[in-house]
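Need a sequence for this fold. Nothing fancy.
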């Protein structure tokens, strides 16, 4: 299934976050104190505000963890974010 975000929206596949403590306990991403998440851009809308960010498909970005709408694309959990939910590009 192909999804094309509209306007100033971005389709991002979040990277899985698991943290293993020294004791061997695995903390899922839901237990994280951080409010930012990392992901890879899969598709971009054609909005004017989004064009100013100079993003491209394949960029790794930091985004607001609680922002966006969760969707499933080809069996993978993804998010559709507004342009202002993206905080930084990881280079």
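Here you go.
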């Amino acid at each position: 299934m192909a999804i094309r975000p509209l306007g100033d929206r971005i389709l991002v596949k979040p990277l899985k976050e698991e943290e293993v403590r020294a004791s061997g306990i695995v903390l899922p991403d839901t237990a994280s104190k951080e409010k930012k998440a990392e992901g890879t851009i899969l598709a971009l809308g054609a909005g004017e505000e989004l064009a100013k960010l100079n993003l491209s498909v394949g960029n790794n970005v930091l985004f607001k963890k609680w922002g966006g709408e969760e969707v499933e694309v080809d069996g993978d959990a993804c998010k559709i974010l507004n342009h202002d939910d993206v905080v930084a590009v990881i280079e």
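For context: The first helix runs from residue 48 to 52.
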